Structures are given as C-alpha cells and as structure tokens.
Amino acid sequence: MKLSEKADKAKSSLVAVETTVFIHGLPKEESVSLFDKLNNMENVAVIGVLNGEIVVGMEKEEILKMMEEGAVKVGTRELPYVISKGMNGATTVSSTLRIAELVGIKVVATGGIGGVHRNNKDISQDLIELSRNRKILVSSGVKSILDVEATFELLETLEIVAVGYKTDEFPIFYSRKSGMRLNMTVEAPSEIVDIFEEMSEMRMGSSLLVLNPIDEEYEIPKEEVERILEKIEKELLEKRIRGKEVTPYMLKRLFQESKGRTLEANLKLLSDNVLLASEIAKELSKRNHS
To answer: Are 30 and 263 in contact (CB under 8 A)?
Structure first.
C-alpha cells in the first residue's frame, strides 16, 4: 500500500474519496478538473488501485494513467482479486470504506451511495460495507436510478444511522425531496461528530450516513428525473443491458436527456459533499487531539 506524503501528513483529518467517479462517472475533461479541485484540498485523499497497489492520495499523473489504461470498477468483494492480479481498480464507496478502515481514515465523501436496484434482485455492496464499518459517510442520498423506498427501508434494517444535514427529507441525488421523512437531523458538523462519538462509545459496527441535499440552484425535480428514467428502463430491457453495465448506461442517457444538467448537478453535489466532509474530519481530529 502506498500513502502519498500529503495523506501521511494529514492522516488524522483525512477525507477519503473514491476513484470510480473520476474513471466511470464523468467525462474526462470534467473529471480531471474536479480531481484537481479536490486534490488541492489539504485533507482530501483520492483512493484507487494502480497496478495492483492500493494508493491512498493519488496524484494527478496516477489518475491520468488510470484513465488512459482503464480500470475495472472494484467493490470490497473484488479488491483481493484486482490486487493479486496487478490490475487497475477504480474504487466504489464500499471498497473506499474498506481501505479507509485499513489506514485509519474516519470520514469518506461521495456523490450518492448505491442501494437496492429497481428489480429488487441486486443490492449494492455499499450498503453491506456501511452496515459493518464504522465511518462517517457524506452523501447526497442514493442515486435516483435505484429503488429509493426499498433502499431507505434497508438502511434502517441494517442499523445504518442516517441523519439529514439541514434537511428533514431524504434526498435522492439530483433532487432534494423524495417524499420520505428523516427523523434525525443536524445543523452543524459538531453535531455529526457528537453522534459519531456516541456510536463509538456504544461500539456500534455501522456507519453514520450524513445526507447533504444538492444545492437548490442545481436541483432537478424528482418528477422530471422519473420521466427520463422510465424511458431509459425500457431501453435497458430492449438492449438487454444488465449487471455493472446498467449504471454507466443510465448515467450517460440521463446526461443526454437532461441536456447536460445532470453533469452540472453531479459536479456540484460531489464538491459540496467533500467540503462538508472536510469540515467534519477537521472537527473530529481537533477533538481527538484535545
């Protein structure tokens, strides 16, 4: 495992960020620009697997190498295989949480977590890892392409503590409102750290999911997203697209049908989530060293 100099220096206040969003989730130009923005933050470490080696705190030349050579999407389950084979791996939320556990990082940021797919036959590894790995994960809810209600219920079943940041409604990525109410809300990073400390005292094994809704200016209403998704779901059936090919296809078609608005929303919410996670990590580090 390789830790960058920045990651090693700021370890106690680090925020871990996945690589899948840069490799599979965004066009190259926007991906590189976002990487530069996040990587310039003093306590952010992008995590990936390069030639079979876990890298915590990827540098620009490393992410460009991964983009050029390609990288398989890797969850926790696939990590041992990808590492042993010397492959490039773009980490998802689940594998980023697992690697964060190995190096002692407490805070992770992403755009949206995986969950229960609409056919109810596929459940993301993200939820499993969140249920057994005590971390703080900042997210704008679940991806709109999922079965939101089933995912919402499963979070409770798996004892994943979900709190709304300045909201009492469960956000769904591009949309601030889902129609599902949250019974736990917070107004400041200090409150988030309070809850996490109590979870640690109780030796809870699950994560604290901080739900940070997208900025109103960039929101795409739920009804509009649903209309587009109905069209895309028909295409999936007609083209027999399944498994790991589903999400990239849906994201590409959402971009096309929304005339680029989903890309703008994606970039904004991810940046905002990393900024919030950075504040939380600094507050947590301050308390641990007081």
So the answer is: yes
Statement: the pTM of the whole predicted model exceeds 0.90:
yes
To the query of whether residue 18 is one of the catalytic residues in this protein, the response is yes
Interval 172-230: pLDDT, tens: 999 999 999 999 999 999 999 999 999 999 999 999 999 999 999 999 998 998 899 89
Domains by residue range for the chain, with CATH: 1-105 (3.40.1790.10), 111-290 (3.40.1790.10)
Query: What CA–CA distance (Å, rounded) separates 41 from 275?
Result: 9
| Range with the poorest average pLDDT among 10-14, 56-60, 90-94, 166-170 | 10-14
Q: Which of 73, 106, 135, 143 is catalytic?
A: 143
- The 8 Å CB, 24+ separation contacts for 23-28 are 23/66, 23/67, 23/70, 23/71, 23/73, 23/90, 24/73, 24/90, 24/248, 25/111, 25/251, 25/266, 26/263, 26/266, 26/267, 27/263, 28/67
